[in-house]
Amino acid sequence: MKNRFLMGLALAAALTAPAFAADPVPRTLAMNGHGEIRSAPDVATVNAGVITSAPTAAAALSANSARMNGVFAALKKMGVAEKNIQTVGFNISPQYTNGENNSPRRLTGYQVNNDVSVRLDDVAKVGAALDALVAAGANQMNGISFDIATPAPLLDKARVDAIADARARAETYAKAAGVSLGAILSISEGGGAEPPRPMYKMMAMSAAPTPVAAGQQSVTADVSVVWEIH
Asked: CA-to-CA distance for 120 and 143, rounded, in angstroms?
């Protein structure tokens, strides 16, 4: 009798309790988008250096220092600010003959290597800078790179294009599936913006004594967008 009474109370409570139905999980569509903006670079970095050899380390260093002073003087004459010139490598290494017929190696002298990185705020001066560096004593050219001094505005444009690209793709899929896009539920930027990439196929700076192709830089953005669909 007691058990029947308890079961009756439980049934009554179940019938009178308010029903809390779980919110339906919204149907969603996720899509990636890519944006890319290309622009001519406005800064360049030249990596150059001086290598000298002599029978003694002191003589090799003295010869190297004389040439490097000439390099610094040439850069100053071109108007390159001191803050844009940085030593990126320096070493003194002994030089030996290759031992033949099991003979011991013999010290023949020393080599000094001094490398600098030079930032140029005018890409049109790259060719002239190369000529000036070589004329002043630089005998090593370790590469030229181009960049965009202020990429943020270009990155913002790339982000806008990335969102538009994602929406265009999402609308295509939604139409094919017979649904419509609703509100955007989330936007995320996958991996951030890529650093500018050189696109070596554009203008050549014919005015420069040494021909140099600056090309274009590419600033990109990738996003992932999630829409609710109906």
From this structure: 14
